[in-house]
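Fold this sequence, please.
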Amino acid sequence: MPRFKRTDRINEQLRQEISILVRDEVRDPRVGIVTITAVETSPELDHAKVYITALGDDSEKEEALEGLRSAAPFVRTQLSRRLHMRRVPELHFRIDRVLAEANRIESLLRQVLPEDDAGAEDGEPAPGAPREEGA
């Protein structure tokens, strides 16, 4: 059974609370529809990287990021009121590029791997495909 570290629980709690604050209380017009995808705190809990995704093109994402960076002191103050932590970490907002990178890798794989295998047309399973039991 996996054991979770304290920082894992804190990261998840911070992610949830920051999501609520950004959705309900941040009034900066630059911050549109933003999703908090992950939070990574340092082992000392004095800094936290907050990863976000936003709708729109790159310039709109950068604008949302700047809005969040300017709202970071407000969000940190609200977190200190909501959470029972000795010290709330300093927030550093970053754009989460994991989804874009995954899409890029998937498109590269689609270019390399053929869609239909020739053996699949005549009733034979494609190479590497799971075989049916009892066949």
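The mean pLDDT is 86. The longest helix spans residues 58-82.
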